[in-house]
Every structure is written in structure tokens, then in C-alpha cells.
Amino acid sequence: MQTKKHSGFIAIIGRPNVGKSTFLNQVIGEKIAIMSDKAQTTRNKIQGIYTTDDTQIVFIDTPGIHKPHSRLGDFMVESALSTLNEVDAVVFMVNATEKKGRGDEFIIKRLKQVKQPIFLVINKIDKIHPDALLGIVDSYRKDLDFAEVYPISALQGINCPELVSAISNVLPEGPQFYPDDQVTDHPERFIAGELIREQVLDLTHEEVPHSVAVIVERIRRENEEKVLVQATIIVERSSQKGILIGKGGKMLKTIGTRARKEIEAMLGDKIYLELWVKVQPNWKDKKADLQALGYKQ
Ligand code: GDP
Ligand code: K
Ligand code: MG
User: Fold this and answer.
1) What domains, with CATH codes, occur in the chain?
2) pTM assigned to the model
3) Which of 104, 110, 118, 291 has the fewest C-beta atoms under 10 angstroms from its C-beta?
4) b/e string for 58-74 if b means 16 or more Cβ within 10 A?
């Protein structure tokens, strides 16, 4: 994975049926459709990953923010709010064909506590007369300051590339978080990554700081008995890489053996673990974001 120009996390929020999944399908492609309606958990969920040569946008959902009747309570709302203040920007999607409703008010109330830039996206403009647009925009603007306002049709793709490019422009320069071909989140990848990271920290003590990250590039069944797991440990300096590899590769081998046992226990399968170590200097800045997003278990 090479370093990308702009990368970051975008929370996409809006009441049910405003067109969030349709939008992600439009910008990311068909593959995403299979996971769009999974049950919500308390964990922030990756809805889709948009990757080009110079951009990676990770769209996430924050369950607590748009559930007025949720019985999960304050914890959900609190964790959603803290996430919204960690992402690079928030996309608030509304429906051009419906009046602002209770669900929207619920979200707006919470967005008032958010400091990150908020994009107001008015979807389904293919179904309204252009003259109606200004009134809709005003009805939201009177409650909240928006960084930008985009009328779109997620279904027809109208103004979607423009919105994606505006989003890219607010993203900081940073590393690519996920492989090019990954469009969704597989929780076992992150858990496998954490199990490897745990061994790294255990075995190196203070020599390798906590800024170490692990990206699991692939979990794939090779045959009936074995699953292949390929992962990269990312450090900030080449001295740290040296420590992790160790004399004659001894340290990396120990990390691998221990992590393999942990991952086997998690997956209930024999695995073949391939580990690499890579230096990526600007990783640390982004690590806080990942933790905020719930990837540190
Ligand atoms: P979500 O619940 O926010 O993910 O909404 P969906 O993406 O599932 O969309 C809900 C419904 O609205 C579906 O029937 C979509 O086809 C429809 N829809 C989404 N975007 C548009 C749009 O831009 N124009 C029109 N006419 N319909 C749309
Ligand atoms: K839906
Ligand atoms: Mg959806």
C-alpha cells in the first residue's frame, strides 16, 4: 500500500430511507450493497470505503445519532457524539421530498454539539421542482451552520462526483488505511490485527511505542484445513522495524507464533500467518482517529 494524498473518516448520517445506502452504492459500487442493511451494533460501522489513486474516504455510520427510540440510551448517544468530533467531516443527508421531521430534529440537536465541518446533502432532487430547493435549504440552515450544501440525486448520480470531491478536499494528507480492493469492514480483520498488536506490545515492552499499528490485508481460506492471514505491522521509524524483526528474524517469528495461536483460537481454524513490517512515518497522527472509531478493542 502506498501513501495516499488525502485520507480520512466521514460519518454519514440521516434518518432511514433518505438514501445513504443508495449514495454509497453510487460512489463506491455494487459490491457494497450486500452489507448495507446489517443489524446495527453499538460499534461504529464502516459503511463503505472509496479509494482512488489520491484519495481514500472511509464512510462510517454512528448508530446512536439517528435513533430517537433507541433503548440503548445515553451511552450510544455519547459515543456517537464523540465519534462525530473525531471524524474529518460529517455528511448529514436529508430527503428533498419530505418535510423536516422528528428524526431530522433529533439529529440536528446532536449536530449542534459537533465541531467538525458538516455537509448538508439534500438527496432525491430528481423528484422535486428546482424552485423548491431554496426553501428546503433554508429550513435546515436556520438551525445549523453548514460547511457546504449539496443537492444531489443518489439514484441518478447527479452532483455525486462533486460532493465526493468536496469531501476529499477537507480530508488531511495521510496514509491509506485499507487495501485498494477493500470496500467494507470485516470485524475479524480488526480483531486479528489487535491480537497481533498485543503480541508486539507484549514482546517489545517500551522499545516499540504504542503507535504501532497492524493492518490485516487478507483473511482467506486456502483449503479445508487452513486459512491464510496476511498482515503488516506499521511502525514509524526504521529502528523500530529492526527491533520487530530481530536478530535473524527471531522476534518476528515469536510474534507470529504467538499471534497465530490467538487468531486460531478466535477463528476456530488452523491458520497460516504471513507477517510483514513496514515503516510509515506519519502513521501516528492517524492512530487516535482509529481508536476513536472503535478499532482498539
Ligand atoms: P437509507 O435508509 O438512508 O440507506 O436509504 P436507501 O438508500 O435504502 O434509500 C431508500 C429509498 O429511497 C430507496 O427506495 C431508494 O431507491 C430511494 N432513493 C435513494 N436515493 C434516491 C434519489 O436520489 N432519488 C430517488 N427518486 N429515490 C432515491
Ligand atoms: K433503507
Ligand atoms: Mg441504508
Assistant:
1) 4-174 (3.40.50.300), 187-292 (3.30.300.20)
2) 0.65
3) 291
4) bbbbbbbbbbeeeeeee
170 is in an annotated binding site: no
Tell me whether residue 232 is annotated as binding.
no
Atom of ligand 1 nearest to the CA of 14: 3
State the pLDDT at residue 119: 98
pLDDT cut 90: percent of the chain above it: 43
Q: Establish whether this prediction's ipTM goes over 0.90.
A: yes
- For the segment 13-23, what is each residue's pLDDT rounded down to a tens digit? 998 889 988 89
CB-based pocket (< 6 A), ligand 1:
14, 16-22, 123-124, 126-127, 153-155
Is 143 marked within a binding site? no
Give residue 19 CA to ligand 3 midpoint distance, Å: 7
User: Nearest C-alpha to atom 18 of ligand 1 is from which residue?
Assistant: 19
